[in-house]
Hints:
Strand content: 25-35%
Number of strands: 6
Number of helices: 2
Shape: flat
Structural class: alpha+beta
Oligomer: single chain
Radius of gyration: 25 Å
Amino acid sequence: MENYFKGKNVEEELERNKIPIKDLPIDFLWMQVKGGSKMSNLLAHASGILEDKAATSVVWTGTGVAIPKAISCAEILKRQFSIEHQVTKLTYKKVEEYWEPKIDGLEKIIVKREIPVIHIFLSTNDIQDQNQIGYQSLKGKKFWQKGQTSTISKNQQSYKTKKPFKHKKNPVEP
């Protein structure tokens, strides 16, 4: 690659109407998290909108290196407002990198990549389709469980218990 220099990047733009979550309300707040975004600014803005009741739901979107930051913001907001319903979806966006040749006779190189994108939908109102893939609630149903929630708590589960290891003393011979 020493004979090439990096040209332009062409990224597929994220659009509000292409978020892959079913039955999104019209007036949701869309927080697009970037790698350089400050969490305190993101959370202050989203908290202000939810406190003012201007929106009852938020979609956090993070791309590439911003995915952990989007997850952290969603989890903090979920705990702060006791948001009961969550839907998480993972997708990809396409990026094309153009590499221009430094030497005559070489062809332009186009590198096509797919970058992961996460969308986390949080809603204080009930979600119509609670059986969709990616749904979680505070009531115990996890996104990987289908159908009804499990009624067995951690305390009620039976576990095999081992007896603690005891050192055997060697009998002393006279």
